[in-house]
Write a structure and sequence with these properties.
Elements: H1 2-160
Biased composition (Basic and acidic residues): 11-21, 68-83, 90-105, 164-182
Biased composition (Low complexity): 40-67
Region (Disordered): 1-182
């Protein structure tokens, strides 16, 4: 019987071993499922955290880009305003310079007109004075020439004996009039 008993015990031991193996397998399966669930949950949590981090980075990048865009627009507007202000200042200075130049030219033209008028008046006065002097000079010259011609005529008359005698000053004798003493 020993063999029957041994067989029984061997069967019992085998049954117990199988039972323990099944329990262990069940425990290992439960632990594996728990580990799997925990890993899936950790992966899902990591995925969510990665998505949140990515969204936060995206939002921060968009905010930085918007801030840079706003600063760029402000800088461009400031540059535009400054350029317009400089252009207006240049325009105003140019206008002032042009007005100053016009005023200066008008003043110079007025002074030139006045000077020309003064010179014209002086020229007219000088011409009138020259005319008056020339008239007097010509009259004097004419009288001198007339006197010289009379002297020459008297000299010719005396040479030809046609000169009047000193007692005949009342009548002038001309070559066409005969003398009375002849």
């Amino acid at each position: 019987m020993a063999s029957h008993d041994q067989s029984f015990r061997a069967g019992e031991a085998k049954g117990q071993t199988e039972e323990k193996t099944n329990q262990m397998m069940s425990n290992i399966g439960d632990k594996a499922q728990a580990a799997k669930d925990k890993t899936a949950q950790a992966a899902h949590s990591a995925w969510d955290k990665t998505a949140q981090t990515a969204q936060a980075a995206k939002d921060k990048t968009q905010q930085a880009a918007q801030a840079a865009k706003d600063r760029s627009c402000e800088t461009a507007q400031a540059a535009k305003d400054k350029t317009q202000q400089a252009a207006q200042t240049t325009k105003d200075r140019s206008s002032d310079t042009a007005q100053y130049t016009r005023d200066k030219a008008q003043n110079a033209a007025g002074a030139t007109r006045d000077k020309a008028s003064e010179m014209g008046q002086a020229t007219r006065e000088s011409a009138q004075s020259g005319k008056d002097n020339a008239g007097g000079f010509l009259q004097q010259t004419g009288e001198k020439v007339k006197g010289m011609a009379q002297g020459a005529a008297d000299a010719v008359k005396q040479t030809f004996g046609m000169a009047p005698h000193e007692d005949e000053h009342e009548h002038e004798h001309y070559p066409t009039h005969p003398r009375r003493d002849i």
